[in-house]
Specification:
Layout lengths: L2 E6 L1 E3 L5 E8 L7 E7 L6 E6 L6 E3 L7 E6 L4 E6 L8 E8 L15 E2 L3 E5 L2
Parallel strand pairs: 2-11
Antiparallel strand pairs: 1-3, 3-8, 4-5, 4-9, 5-6, 7-8, 9-10, 9-11
Length: 126
């Protein structure tokens, strides 16, 4: 059973940066993929970025490509989402999720993830 704990987030002005962290425990990190999702008020939860179990495959939603960077450190079992040039439309609750179903290939589809973090608020406003 994986447990996923997130940290980071908060408030930032447009154009600013934030970093989110996601740490999963209960399984060795090379056996699971990690995805980041977000949900804005009144909207569906959408995939933002994902990284496969060994960090060799990365995916980004079109809306964040070139501004967000996902990375992982398997020595400490932590995945990071660096968010630059943030805009008000990035405001949402961000969720980290883990999947051990299909190592080496990560997906931005929420149904492919079984273990979810608690969510963290990211607010971008002036």
């Amino acid at each position: 059973q994986l447990q996923v704990v997130q940290s980071g987030g908060g408030w930032v002005q447009p154009g600013g940066s934030l970093r989110l962290s996601c740490k999963a425990s209960g399984l060795s990190s090379e056996y699971y993929n990690i995805g980041w999702f977000r949900q804005a008020p009144g909207k569906e939860r959408e995939g933002v970025s994902c990284i496969n179990n060994i960090g060799g495959q990365l995916n980004y939603a079109d809306s964040v490509r070139g501004r967000f960077t996902i990375s992982r450190d398997n020595l400490n079992g932590t995945v990071y989402l660096r968010m630059d040039r943030l805009a008000p439309e990035d405001t949402a609750i961000y969720y980290c999720a883990a999947s051990a179903r299909r190592p080496f290939y990560c997906s931005l589809t929420r149904d492919n993830y079984d273990y979810w973090g608690q969510g963290t608020q990211v607010t971008v406003s002036s």
